[in-house]
Structure formats: structure tokens, C-alpha cells
Design a protein that fits this description.
The protein is mainly α. The chain contains 17 helices and seven strands. It starts with a helix and ends in an 11-residue tail after the last helix.
Length: about 375
């Protein structure tokens, strides 16, 4: 009996790497059934993955001098990351196609990081890292080169009309029929966009919020965790909240109750949401917005900080006071505005006394 157990594995998972690859791809395809993405987006995603698996080859570490086509577990192997990137630029027909495929690889690998198990009927669930080691993406936001040549400077903010379109889109993604995890994600993503655009908070400050920090009766939010909290100075401050923030927050807490002292934004396991997850959500949201062909101009490098720039510009367009803006955003110096306005600095400065005058009442901290 012992000899039979040695020669007959208990599961086909123990010997079939191509099967594992197919099951991982099938799991990724199945995830599209629970996401509000177009059929064309799904077809393009798998066409690019199939291009990678059909065209990109790397040297086999076990057989020096022999190349083979890559599979899922080459893409997720952290030690192969540089080889994968180089092979994509070498084997795919053009640099733009290689960049597009690398972005698709990144989304696929991130899915496997969040969902590292595969299953086939009649077999036990297989935890992929147990057999193939840690799962990681070979791509990050800094690994893809910027296109060279004549181009306009980055417009890393949203115009007022684009900002409204963005929030309408994130609101439309909150569908009652979504699975609980997807509904939580869509609701939190919309809330984060509203807080970022209406209050101008940094991403770390948004992630550090608890329900107790919002004093709705006074119309303010106490920001206690963010830039400078770990090393360069503690910047506790109060920021006014708009009616949109109040309404969105109330709707969110009715659907997802939180204790006063627990994180407002959480993973599905109840832990505080992290920066990497938030950046990944933003990348996914940008892909969906571009697939929907909304009239929103999104330059490469657009991220959460673009909402802080958007808040600054819209605040000044409404003749906001520069000292109150400095206090709301937590800047150390009013000169920081020049980094946020770019080419519009002179236009903003020409708006006259309402912009540069001292606020009525109160103390301007840090002057």
C-alpha cells in the first residue's frame, strides 16, 4: 500500500503545471462575471495575455541554452521579473504593444495575489504559493518607460466638468446586485474619490480616517494621520466638509456600519485599507473610465494626488482665500501653491485681493 501511494499521487495538481495555468486563467476569466466591465474589455484583456503566452519566451533555468514560452507561473515569479520585462520588449512586435501587454500582465498577477487558489471539480483546492512560491507582479508603475518626443506637460488634475463626470461614474458602479466584497469595494472607492476631491486630503490622510474624526454637527473633519505623522512633524488640523461629503458618508455608514474608533476604510477582513490596494483600485478605475470612453482627459501618472490638485484649482476658481487653503491642505508655506497650479500660477495670482488677503478671524498657523 505504501508503494502504491508513492507512485500514485493523491491529486493531479501535484504533476500538471499546464493544468494549473489553465485553471488560473479560467479563474481570472470568471472574475469578469462579477465586475462591471464591457465584453470588449474582457476580449482585449485575454487577447493580450494570449499574445504574451504565444510569443514571449525566456531561458529555462533547469535547461541552460534552451528557451521556452512563458506561462502564468513565470509571470508571477519575483525572481523572473526582469527577464519577463526584457522578453516582452524583445519578442512582442512593438514597444506600444509591449507596454500594453505589460499592463495586462500586471492586472492578471495582482488578481492572483488577491486570489491565490485554484479549484477543479473532484479535487481539493490548491494554494498556488505552496507549489510555485510567492506571487508577485513583474510590473509596477515605474517600470514602464515614458514615451519620448514632443509632448505637452502632464495635466495631473481634473477640470470641473471632468470631476463631476468622474464622481457620477464611481457612483454608478455601486450596484445592489454586486457580491458583498465588490459592493464594499465600489462604495469605498466612491467615498474615497469624494473625500479626496471635496477636502483635498492626501491618500495617507484619507486611509487614516475613523468615523469619530467627522464632526458632522460642526461641518468639519479632524485630520490626525498623514504626511509628517511618522518623522517630519505631526500636522493635526480641521478641514471643512461639504454637503456632498456628508451625504456620501451617511449613505456609506448606513450600508456598512463602523464603530467610532475603527477604520472608516477597510479590507474585507476588517483591516485598515493600505496604500498599495488604494493605488491598485485607482489603476483599475482608470481602465474602466477609459473603456467607457468618458469625456475625461487622463494623463499617464494620474493618481490619488491628482484629486488634491483638482481641489486646489477648483477652490481658487471659486475665489477661495489662499491662507484658508493653506490651512485646509496642511501646507507649511503658501508658496506651495505654485507646484499645484503650474502654468496657471500667473492667472491665479491675478485674481486679486480675495485670493491673497488674510482670512477674516482666526489664526493662520505656520505663517
Amino acid at each position: 500500500m505504501q508503494r502504491e501511494q508513492q507512485h500514485h499521487p493523491a491529486s493531479i495538481y501535484e504533476v500538471d503545471r499546464p493544468l494549473h495555468h489553465e485553471l488560473a486563467m479560467a479563474a481570472y476569466r470568471e472574475s469578469f462575471r462579477h465586475r462591471t466591465l464591457t465584453e470588449k474589455y474582457e476580449k482585449d484583456e485575454f487577447r493580450r495575455l494570449n499574445d504574451v503566452f504565444a510569443l514571449v519566451s525566456i531561458g529555462d533555468p533547469d535547461l541552460p541554452g534552451i528557451c521556452r514560452l512563458v506561462d502564468t507561473f513565470d509571470l508571477t515569479n519575483p525572481r523572473q521579473a526582469a527577464k519577463i520585462r526584457d522578453a516582452c520588449y524583445r519578442d512582442l512586435p512593438s514597444q506600444p504593444r509591449a507596454i500594453t501587454c505589460l499592463k495586462t500582465i500586471d492586472r492578471y498577477c495582482r488578481f492572483l495575489v488577491d486570489n491565490p487558489t485554484v479549484y477543479q471539480e473532484g479535487q481539493p483546492t490548491l494554494y498556488l504559493p505552496d507549489m510555485y512560491g510567492p506571487i508577485a507582479s513583474p510590473v509596477n508603475r515605474y517600470a514602464i518607460p515614458r514615451p519620448k518626443g514632443d509632448r505637452a506637460p502632464n495635466r495631473n488634475f481634473l477640470e470641473a466638468s471632468e470631476y463631476k463626470q468622474w464622481l457620477r461614474f464611481t457612483w454608478s458602479q455601486i450596484l445592489p446586485g454586486l457580491p458583498d466584497a465588490e459592493l464594499l469595494k465600489a462604495s469605498q472607492l466612491h467615498l474615497m474619490c469624494v473625500i479626496a476631491g471635496e477636502m483635498g486630503l492626501r491618500l495617507q490622510e484619507i486611509l487614516g480616517l475613523n468615523p469619530e474624526h467627522f464632526i458632522l454637527a460642526d461641518g468639519v473633519c479632524i485630520v490626525v494621520w498623514g504626511k509628517g505623522s511618522n518623522g517630519s512633524g505631526f500636522r493635526k488640523r480641521t478641514v471643512p466638509i461639504s454637503p456632498l461629503v456628508k451625504a456620501t458618508l451617511n449613505d456609506f455608514l448606513k450600508q456598512f456600519p463602523r464603530a467610532k474608533d475603527e477604520p472608516l476604510l477597510q479590507t474585507r477582513h476588517g483591516q485598515r485599507l493600505g496604500k498599495n490596494t488604494a493605488h491598485h483600485w485607482m489603476d483599475e478605475l482608470i481602465d474602466r473610465i477609459q473603456a467607457a470612453k468618458l469625456p475625461i482627459f487622463i494623463e499617464r501618472g494620474f493618481g490619488w494626488h491628482a484629486f488634491r490638485r483638482t481641489y486646489t484649482r477648483l477652490y481658487l476658481e471659486r475665489d477661495g482665500n489662499i491662507y484658508e487653503l493653506k490651512r485646509n491642505t496642511g501646507w507649511s508655506y503658501t508658496s506651495t501653491i505654485s507646484h499645484y497650479l503650474g502654468d496657471s500660477k500667473q492667472k491665479a495670482m491675478s485674481s486679486g485681493p480675495p485670493l491673497w488677503g488674510k482670512p477674516s478671524g482666526g489664526v493662520v498657523h505656520g505663517d
